[in-house]
Amino acid sequence: MRNKLSKLLLLLALVSSLTFGPARAAGPTGADGLADPLFPLLGNGGYDALHYTLDLKPAMEQESLSGTVTMEARATQDLAAFNLDFAGFTIRQLTVNDAPAQYTRSTHELTITPAKPLKMGDTFTTAITYDGSPETSSVDGIETGWRWYNNGSFAANEPAGAAGWFPVNDHPLDKASYTFRVTVAKPYVVAANGLLKNTIDNGDTTTYLWEESKPMASYLATVDIARYTMQTDKSPGGVAIRNYFPEGMAPEETQMYSRTREMIDFFSSIYGPYPFDVYGVVIADTELGFALETQTLSLFGRTRSANRRVGQIAPEEVVAHELSHQWFGDSVSLKSWEDIWLNEGFATYSQFLWLEHVSGKDALDSRMRGIYRLLDTQRGTGETGRPDVQTLFDTNLIYLRGSLVLHALRMHVGDETFFNIMRTYADRFRYSNANTADFIKVANEVSGQDLTSFFQTWLFDSKLPAIPEIGLSPSA
Ligand code: TRP
Ligand code: ZN
Fold it and tell me: Is the dihedral of CA 113, 117, 123, 127 positive or negative?
């Protein structure tokens, strides 16, 4: 009887698995995306990630990673199954609340069916052990993810590269705190977001324990490995600074970072207190064509011509740009990638505010006039408030016109109101998320004006608007 029953059950299981696939969950499943207009499959629904622990052992010679990533999360609905974003690697073990769970994979979606369904409101822990070589991906011509170079590695994820090296709810809407426990062969040094809590000598290897306790978007997570020298400093206002420079980097090359201490206090004075526990830069020991505002630890590459200007832009401005992102992008994060001008337009205008701070009003004025004329000759630049995947990081459309939106706003409402708007926005959405409508609401409220049509023409009309207050209008 028992034997017959178990045979029947086995048969049923076999039939249902043939019919429905091995890991198809019966019951509610978390969505496989967060309905981002540009990246519908980034992030996942049904839960809120609270904390990630990345326990990683990078093999520098083999250019491979192995480790275990744990996500603590809270179910926001009943879940028979849920997704993480994760690409590549071989999964060796996967548990939910310490019990082995079933899973299936397709491109960068990992679908997990826990042994016991989760109830709305439950907190749960998912642990995934994996190994292999990280996969990089490309958006708007920038290769993102975990990248190796001759004598080290770095991770730069914006917008969708995090899932190429760890399983994650990969959208800025779901921020979480992070622990990084990274073990590398000597004499490599590991830098990551937040505070270095411990360094453990294991003989041939060293384990670095880093903690970022403030909410962080996954694209801002970074682990950077090289033969590093750490240098500490403190801003006059009291913000701790730690920089990671490749061993033996010449003073001419570190010089562009030396005013970070003043910049922190300058931006704190106009935008409100620096939002995190610590700041600094990490320099990948390889040439890079970009820099990234990785939280608490902005990432740069080496530049042979360290202090040469690129066009008008002094290298120090890029340092100010990445620092200002800590307020705009990192503390106040995007609700949707379409709103990228809220990051890049703000950081670009911030670097110009630093220019104004050190070189005066005329320097800012002529910079903004130059940009206006440049965009004017391009006969419209598209819609800054609505880019597509190909123009997400477009210099003219997002960085330059984005900065001009803020300059035009400042000319329109005056300095006092403008800086009030910026401070109120940074404060109201600190450690959270905002979109263009949220910013317009703050601007209307603080100025006491209805600026809806001002923003409409600047952000959603491709024609370049005039800035009548300073006599700028399009030539045709
Ligand atoms: N946000 C970066 C900046 O400050 C630009 C950027 C976008 C980037 N995607 C990236 C940098 C990926 C490094 C890797 O302008
Ligand atoms: Zn930027």
Answer: negative
